[in-house]
Amino acid sequence: MPSGKNIPAGRATRAESMRKDLAAALTAATNSPGTGLARAALIIARIEYPRLDPEPYLTSLDRMGNAARCAFERSAHASGDRSTPALIRALNAYLFEELGFAGNREHYEDPRNSCLNEVLDRRTGIPITLAIVYMEVARRAGLQLDGVNFPGHFLVRYPEGTGSALIIDPFHGGALLTEHQCRILLQTHVGPEVAFNQALLVPATRIQIVVRMLLNLKNLYVHMRSFPQARDVTELLLAMTPSALSELRDRGLLAYHLNDVSGALRDLQTYLKLSSIGDIDKDAREEQQQIWEHVKTLRRRVAALN
Questions:
Q1: Whole-prediction pTM value?
Q2: Which residues lie closer than 8 Å to 216 by C-beta, 6 or more apart?
């Protein structure tokens, strides 16, 4: 059963308006020309920091990109080596040795690790946010890198030619990974249920990276029982993937926990209608039955108020 007091109508309206504004801003940032991720990541951080101004952080990334370009030139002048691995070594030295960026192993579940502003301020984060810093600085320095939605541990890649790529792990100081090391990484984070194949190392699109950031953050907020923030994230996920029935279901369940009766009924009833189309398996039927019980409870509550 839901617990807590009902949300006042005025406050609920303001919160819904803020969620819609945030969703519109993230959609615009994700669909803008180019491959940049920083602005979208800073919009996501506004869930935790509603008054966040992105401009100082974008300026900081510009400065870091200029410094990295200078580091590339110094390295090439000193060694005569302008190969991509040499550039990556120079970038690693700048980010991880000079600036001190590092993976946050001790407090991995801290929400600040998922907020780009905090990652830049504190110089620590999780694989995906450190990868965004890595890619954004590299791009500004003239080195285009791709994100990799590797299961359990986000990675970065540089295409070296037909069918080959350098695989980089920003969480571990920009280490270059062999295929064997990628296999070990998969086993460590996911286990034997996912078999390794080269398709796991293909470049991720910008929207795929944004969605992965949002899913990480949603799971974290749900685990912390921070349901208002989890619903904000789900709103953004639906803006990115409007046909994702699982996100429609989750938004309804979060509204249920927050005593937003009308929002919960709207989403859960729509989910039941859409998820019933076509053949469904036993697990799906059991889930639908659980959702239907929630809907009946909500309808009884509405009837009691009339």
A1: 0.90
A2: 114, 126, 128
